[in-house]
Amino acid sequence: MENRAVLLPQTNRDDWGENMMHARTLTIRIMRYNPAEPETKPYLQDFQLTEEPGMTLFVVLNKLREEQDPTLRFDFVCRAAICGSCGMLVNGKPTLACKTLTKDLPETTTLLPLPVFKLIGDLSVDTGVWFRDVSLRTESWIHTDTVFDPDAEEERMDNDVAQKIYEAERCIECGCCIGGCATANIKPNFIGAAGVNRVARFMLDPRDQRTDREYLELVGTDDGVFGCVGLMACDDNCPVGIPLRDQLAYVRRKMAQSAWNLGKTK
Amino acid sequence: MQLQKAMAHNPRMDVIVEGIQMVSGLLLVVFLWTHMLFVAAIWLGVNAFNTLAHFMDVFGLLPATVVFLILVIGAHIGAVIRRVPRQWQEQKILWRHAKLIHHSDTWSWLFQAITGTALLALAIVHMAVVTYGGIDANLSSSRVHGGFLVFYAVLLLLSEYHASVGLYRVFVKWGWVDRHSLKRVLTVVSLLTVVIGAVTLWIFYVLGANA
């Protein structure tokens, strides 16, 4: 036993020993609701399990489903903060379950599905319908008259611009910024930080030929960037750390600028 | 696009209203802080306060200020009213949401709306009293000692809170400065103005008690 333990990296072995000695019993309080059975009101159900070293909520929920309740509904695909499927309210904070370690949580943790999105059941929501709608409304594709020439060498992009575009593109569409946004919770057409961030990406892209005025019509509205009242729950909760406040402010200033220019040309 | 939207289409509308909200808010903050400094003239004595009041009287600054306030507060209310949820259902969602996500900036927005509504009522009373009574150290001290102390203390706290949160939001939304240092600076400034106002009130109270 001693020999085998030595093979483990020093830190891991210590962690393991520490946790085995005082393994906590976690209480996971999960919202249960099935929209197909509206007569049963949403309720919180308590599950108990023993904490393990390096345990994430991904592990917790899968264990609970395998060992305690096969009807428990939640979404996971990648378990590595890339797919954006497992956004939920963890003790009220919108975040990804797969990157939430139980060691950072209290003994009792409440899990609720993300608000705003269509509830499929328990912790599972459909973010796809919402994001598709916003993509269509903000016309999230490159608008250009340039005819594609497959033989021509690809045009080079300035590295700084490419980096800025990439910053916005890192969005995994988990919906944490939307679920945490009070405005998105009461205004169904508000495109939220995810929507504004998406538009920022196209504004930065030199290949997109949309004019400032077109962008103004698109996002310089109350459903766009001017619907934001500056609560910054998006900026505080983005699990992949996109600087959403900067993106919102960038689009806001840009839209104010184009409104100003439009006023001058009138 | 629907007919009504096509007929009343102005792509700059939402920017303009947002601009009115911001500029009127900034003007009110400037007014509030100037006001706090002006009434703090009582720190230098009854004569200093009355001289300043007399100066304002001579140049017609009192009625000018009242007109300014009616216009600017009116514009501010007109612009911010679109943000306040009017439907009961929306109110319920907002309160539940704030309780759910434990996020201080979301709570401060609810308080911003509440203090704003309360300020409207308090400011009307305050302006009416000052307009009809005029500005004079004796009047103020007897008023503060004669039961208005709590009224002014509440007005002071609510207005400084509302101004502080409002300024914070303006800077957060337009993105000129770092959020967290902004919060610290504004907290210090607001505490300072509250202290200035509280000391002023205390001086008036003592003057009233000794009169």
Structural commentary:
The complex is a heterodimer of chains A (266) and B (211). Chain A has 266 residues and is α+β, with helices and mostly antiparallel strands. Helices cover 41% and strands 14% of the residues of chain A. Chain A folds into 2 domains: 2-125, Beta-grasp domain (Ubiquitin-like (UB roll), Roll), CATH 3.10.20; 138-265, Orthogonal Bundle (Fumarate Reductase Iron-sulfur Protein, Chain B, domain 2), CATH 1.10.1060.10. Chain A contains 11 helices and 7 strands. In chain A, the strands form 2 sheets. In chain A, strands 2-1-5-3-4 form a 5-stranded mixed beta sheet. In chain A, strands 6-7 form a two-stranded antiparallel ribbon. In chain A, strand 6 (118-121) and strand 7 form a beta hairpin. In chain A, helix 5 runs antiparallel to helix 8 (192-204) and helix 9 (212-219) crosses helix 11. Chain B has one domain (3-210): Up-down Bundle (3 helical TM bundles of succinate and fumarate reductases). Chain B has helices at 3-7, 13-39, 46-58, 61-80, 88-101, 104-133, 137-174, 179-210. The termini of chain B are far apart. At the A-B interface, helix 7, helix 9, helix 10 and helix 11 of A face helix 2, helix 5, helix 6 and helix 7 of B.
Our estimate of the beta-strand percent of chain A is 5-15%
DSSP E strands of chain B, number: 0
Classify the helix fraction of chain A into a percent range.
40-55%
Round the Cα radius of gyration of chain B to an integer and report it.
Answer: 20 Å
- Largest protein-protein interface: A-B, 40 and 31 residues
Helix content of chain B: over 70%
CATH class of chain B: Mainly Alpha
Q: How would you characterize the largest beta sheet of chain A?
A: 5 strands, mixed
Q: Number of folding domains of chain B? A: 1
pLDDT under 50 segments of chain A (min length 5)? 1-11
